[in-house]
Amino acid sequence: MSATLKMPASRVVENAKQTSETVLSDASSAMKTAAENPKQATSDFLHTPFIRGALPFVNGGLAGMTATTVIQPVDMVKVRLQLAGEGIKTGPKPTPFGIFRDIVAAGKVADLYTGLSAGLLRQAVYTTARLGIFDTLMKSLSATAEQKGQKIGFKERAGAGLTAGGLAAMLGNPADLALIRMQSDGLKPAAQRANYTSVIDALTRISKNEGVLRLWAGAYPTVVRAMALNFGQLAFFSEAKSQLKDTSLSPRTQTLAASAVAGFFASFFSLPFDFVKTRLQKQTRAPDGSLPYKGMLDCFAKVTKDEGLLRFYRGFGTYYVRIAPHAMVTLIVADFLGFITK
Predict the structure, then answer these.
(1) Which of 5, 74, 135, 141 suits 88 as a labelling partner, its CA being 20 to 30 A distant?
(2) What is the pLDDT of residues 202-248, one digit of tens each?
(3) Domain boundaries, the chain
(4) CA 54, CA 52: separation in Å to the nearest integer?
């Protein structure tokens, strides 16, 4: 029989009373300390091991979702531009302004935000993972380099960016596919449109009608695109900030300049893969069960043959306007959140 069962009932009650009083006293003391010095209480909370590990992921997700909300109309135009003239080398060449005008004329301004729920879900998964993984890898690499009396260089930054991008892209592919389906739905004849009501509706119906694995359609180019984009964005941002650290520019100006450099390289390296990703994720099976493209390499080959090599860089200006500001807003917000939660 345990000592507790042998103890008199009055003693058990007394011990329970003392324990509850101690807990209440500690809670009261913690609340009093927080009331007297809220900054210290917040700092103590932010520096707990769990919160320190989670913050890079939380900050990354919030930064990405903020940027997506700002850039979503440009992304809508970019997708429509990439899907226009599919399989045709010659013919009319749509412009970003023409597509923007057509979308607004066919419906309403809110149509430019079609797929926003999918875009936010994608950022909640993809950017949370990529920035969190990148930051975690960079801290680990920095700590290892310091132990050896060295500094991390561009090679380490590039490796961290490629790794973070690839892993995050695999996690975020279903939301990315839902986004492309929702944005391209308006290009179909009215009778053939799926008319998805939300990202959950899109994911559910695609899984039910085409199979769960279809949610990872285009995953290969998505991963390659993400690796190229993150190589351009995260590696060059980190490198540019390192190079600008000893200049006379203010920290805010350094962040802005570094994010602008990162945005350009991210756009340049990733656009061809983004183009193929869009084509693969948009395609649906014909009545005979066939698909226009068998995979990434087949898409590259067919577009090169039927539409020309330059088609991969069609809409570079629109893509840059979509990627560069998104990268800049994401990196600036993430940098700011990282600063206030130090």
Answers:
(1) 74
(2) 999 999 999 999 899 878 888 888 888 888 888 888 888 888 988 88
(3) 49-340
(4) 6
Q: What is the CATH number of domain 49-340?
A: 1.50.40.10
Residues whose CB falls within 8 Å of the CB of residue 240, separated by 6 or more in sequence, listed in order? 257, 258, 261, 262
330, 261 contact by CB (below 8 A) = no
- Residue 138's contacts (CB-CB under 8 Å, 6 or more residues apart) are 152, 156, 157, 160, 238
Per-residue tokens: 221: 């180019």
Cα gap 131→165, rounded to integer Å: 9
Position 5 scores a pLDDT of 46
- In this structure, the number of other CB atoms found within 10 A of the CB of residue 190 comes to 7
For residue range 111-135, list pLDDT tens digits in order: 888 888 888 888 888 888 888 898 8
Sequence length of the chain is: 342
